[in-house]
């Protein structure tokens, strides 16, 4: 109902969340070690190269695709957050995503420990 009574506020909220999530995701690939250069280094260490191409070609492909994929992933997280907020989920959409991420990380750690023995 707030969107109907104050549409400008709603559109500013949507634009802010989507832009912020996209920029954060784009920045995160450099901070987390998922940048195209880091991925190229990991692929080289596994002896994986581009089909009929050089490392330079593979680096160009990675530079073209990784930032776009990161920004799109950030937009998807933003859309999920906005939908959860607008649908009135218990808590905020951001809180729900954060809680899911924490539970998933705990599960991953548990799976590693079980696998380790």
Question: How is this structure best described in words?
Answer:
This protein is mainly alpha-helical. It is 81% helix and 0% strand. It contains five helices and no strands. It has helices spanning 2-5, 7-31, 36-45, 55-86, 93-116. The longest helix has 32 residues, at 55-86. The N and C termini lie far apart (53 Å).
List low-confidence stretches: none
Number of helices: 5
Mean pLDDT: 85
| Distance N to C terminus | 53 Å
- Measured on Cα atoms, how large is the radius of gyration? 19 Å
Largest sheet, strands/sense/barrel: none
- Global geometry: flat
Question: Which class of secondary structure composition applies to the elements?
Answer: mainly alpha
Helical content stands at over 70%
Order of helices and strands: HHHHH
Based on the structure, what is the oligomeric state of the protein chains?
A: single chain
Q: What proportion of the residues form beta strands (DSSP E)? A: under 5%
Number of strands: 0
Secondary-structure blueprint:
Blueprint: H1 2-5, H2 7-31, H3 36-45, H4 55-86, H5 93-116
In short:
With 117 residues, the chain is mainly alpha-helical.
């Amino acid at each position: 109902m707030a969107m109907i009574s104050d549409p400008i506020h709603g559109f500013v909220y949507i634009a802010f969340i989507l832009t912020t999530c996209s920029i954060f995701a784009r920045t995160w690939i450099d901070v987390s070690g998922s940048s195209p250069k880091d991925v190229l280094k990991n692929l080289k260490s596994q002896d994986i190269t581009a089909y009929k191409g050089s490392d330079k070609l593979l680096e160009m492909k990675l530079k073209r695709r990784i930032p776009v994929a990161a920004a799109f992933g950030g937009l998807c997280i933003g859309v999920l957050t906005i939908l959860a907020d607008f649908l009135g989920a218990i808590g905020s959409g951001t809180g729900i995503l954060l809680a899911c991420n924490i539970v998933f990380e705990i599960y991953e750690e548990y799976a590693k420990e079980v696998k380790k023995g």
